[in-house]
Design a protein that fits this description.
By secondary structure, this protein is mainly α. The chain is built from nine helices and no strands.
Length: 255
C-alpha cells in the first residue's frame, strides 16, 4: 500500500467545478428555486475547506495544548451557533457548554482509552476526531430541537389541555421529547446498519486511501461510530431537556 492518497490535480479540480456548474444549470432549468443557495454553499464549502486545510497544517506543526484547545473552543462555538440558527429556538446559554463538554469528554476518552495516544491533545487525532463527533452532534441537535419546536406549535391545544390537568412541563411534552430524540438518533442508527455493505464511511475510506491496513481502518470506524452515537444521544437529550422551558414559554405565550 502507498503511504498517502494520490493527490488531485488543479485541472481535475477545475473539471469538478465545471460539473458543479452543470448541476447549477440543471437546477436553474428545473426552476427548483435553490440555485443561489447551491452557489453560496459551494463557494462557502470550498473556501472553508481550503482555509481549514492551511489552518490545520499550522496547528499540526505547532501541536501545543493551548492552540488545540483554542481551535476546539472555536469549533464548539460555531457548532452551537449553528444549532441555534438552524433550530430557530432563540438564544440558549446551555447549548454552548453542552456541545463543548460532551465533545471534549468523548474525544478525550477516545484518545486515551480507545486509541491510547501518547499525547491526548495530539492535534492530528484530537481535532479530526472531535470534528466528527461534534459535527454529528450539531446536526442531530439542530434536527431534534427543530422537530421539538414544530411539534409544540402543532399541538398547542393538546399541551394546554395537559397543563390544565396538572401535568408538569416534562409530562406535557414527553411524547414530543421522545419523538425528537428518536429523529436525532435514526440517521446514525441507519448508518450503523448499512455500513460496510451499502457504503464505506469517510473515516474508513480516508485511512485506506492513506495506506492503512483495512482491518485497522475498520476498528477506527467502529470506534468512532459508537462514540458518535453516544455523543448524539447525550448532547441531544441534554439540549432538549434544558431548552424545554424556553420552547414551552415561547410557543405557549404565542411569541
Amino acid at each position: 500500500m502507498s503511504d498517502s492518497a494520490k493527490d488531485i490535480s488543479i485541472i481535475s479540480m477545475a473539471i469538478l467545478y465545471l460539473f458543479s456548474g452543470g448541476l447549477g444549470l440543471l437546477i436553474h432549468i428545473l426552476k427548483l428555486g435553490i440555485l443561489k443557495d447551491f452557489i453560496y454553499s459551494l463557494i462557502r464549502m470550498s473556501f472553508q475547506l481550503f482555509l481549514g486545510s492551511f489552518v490545520l497544517m499550522y496547528i499540526f506543526k505547532i501541536n501545543t495544548l493551548w492552540i488545540v484547545l483554542l481551535f476546539f473552543t472555536l469549533m464548539s462555538v460555531v457548532a452551537s451557533r449553528t444549532i441555534i440558527q438552524k433550530s430557530k429556538i432563540g438564544e440558549s446559554f446551555f447549548i454552548y457548554p453542552i456541545i463543548f463538554f460532551t465533545s471534549f469528554l468523548l474525544t478525550f476518552i477516545f484518545q486515551v482509552v480507545i486509541v491510547g495516544t501518547d499525547t491526548w491533545y495530539d492535534a492530528r487525532y484530537f481535532i479530526t476526531i472531535s470534528g466528527m463527533i461534534m459535527g454529528n452532534s450539531m446536526n442531530a441537535c439542530a434536527v431534534a430541537l427543530d422537530r421539538f419546536n414544530n411539534d409544540l406549535k402543532e399541538n398547542y391545544d393538546l399541551i394546554e389541555t395537559l397543563f390544565s390537568f396538572g401535568a408538569s412541563n416534562f409530562e406535557a411534552v414527553s411524547i414530543f421529547f421522545k419523538k425528537s430524540l428518536r429523529s436525532a438518533l435514526m440517521p446514525i442508527i441507519t448508518n450503523m446498519s448499512s455500513v460496510g455493505i451499502v457504503f464505506f464511511p469517510g473515516m474508513m475510506t480516508g485511512q485506506i486511501l492513506a495506506g492503512s491496513n483495512p482491518t485497522v481502518a475498520v476498528k477506527y470506524q467502529i470506534a468512532i461510530m459508537i462514540t458518535i452515537a453516544i455523543s448524539v444521544l447525550i448532547s441531544t437529550m441534554l439540549n432538549l431537556y434544558f431548552n424545554m422551558k424556553i420552547a414551552l414559554r415561547k410557543f405557549l405565550d404565542g411569541v
